[in-house]
Amino acid sequence: MENTLESDRLWEDRDVRFDVPLNQMKMRPGERLIDYLDSIEDTKGNNGERGRLMVTNLRIIWHSKTLPRINLSVGFNAVINISTRTAESKLRGTTEALYILTRCNNTRFEFIFTNLVPETPRLFTSVLAVHRAYETTKMYRDLKLRGSLIANKTLRLLPLEEVYNKVNGVWNLSSDQGNLGTFYITNVRLVWHAEINESFNVSIPYIQMRAVKIRDSKFGTALVIESLKNAGGYVLGFRIDPVEKLQEVMKEIHSLYRVYSAN
């Protein structure tokens, strides 16, 4: 029994893409437009070209005003450094500009954006503030192994996170003998930790799940969760008795994944 979840992989915050189709510039479910600047030059790649820049909670989007097919999508997870330095703009001359250094698929890209509206720091403040907020909310999106997730056998909740179900007696099948532990099923992720060692744990956000399935293993019927390739491509197995309870847990995880992805 299997549910494959990877119908709409989250790439917007992970990738650097050039000249994407217009439908890839639209907001995906859960993506929010934070700021919109109407006179921004892509000084490094399209010097002299007036364009629009959008800052969302996942990425920076720039496109030419005259030719929207000339565009950029820069995910915040790919950003290495943000700084301000002097640049030579064909439209503004020598001026302060926003420099963004990124890395995607082992390739580095540098972007330089110039605000064509003088005497305003809005370009710098918006991008820096949203990137800082993105960096502090990675636990909502990143698969985490052996993190500081549990305190006194209780899950450390993220802001706005709610526990929907706590399931005891869950065996993690990653070792030959298995490890007994507990599931926390929340509105944003699935967390498991071992009973005898709270630091042996895993946090799997729904957005990083590729498939949830039930299949046979050497330990008997098991719940198998596969993560997306960009989340490590992990295959994690868990056993819950009886089988009927295991099936209920799988259905609950799948249902919460759908709700999370739609919002």
Task: Describe the overall structure.
The protein is mostly beta strands and 263 residues long. It is 13% helix and 47% strand. It has helices spanning 122-135, 243-262, and strands spanning 2-4, 16-18, 33-42, 50-56, 59-64, 71-75, 79-89, 93-104, 107-115, 144-145, 150-151, 154-155, 163-172, 179-186, 189-194, 201-205, 209-217, 220-227, 235-240. The strands form 3 sheets. Strands 1-17-18-19-13-14-15-16-10 form a 9-stranded antiparallel sheet, covered by helices on one side. A hairpin with a 6-residue loop joins strand 15 (189-194) and strand 16. It is elongated.
Task: Give the structure's gist in a few sentences.
It is built from 2 helices and 19 strands. The chain has helices at residues 122-135, 243-262; strands at 2-4, 16-18, 33-42, 50-56, 59-64, 71-75, 79-89, 93-104, 107-115, 144-145, 150-151, 154-155, 163-172, 179-186, 189-194, 201-205, 209-217, 220-227, 235-240.
Write the layout of secondary structure elements.
Blueprint: E1 2-4, E2 16-18, E3 33-42, E4 50-56, E5 59-64, E6 71-75, E7 79-89, E8 93-104, E9 107-115, H1 122-135, E10 144-145, E11 150-151, E12 154-155, E13 163-172, E14 179-186, E15 189-194, E16 201-205, E17 209-217, E18 220-227, E19 235-240, H2 243-262
Antiparallel strand pairs: 1-17, 2-6, 3-4, 3-9, 4-5, 5-6, 7-8, 8-9, 10-16, 11-12, 13-14, 13-19, 14-15, 15-16, 17-18, 18-19
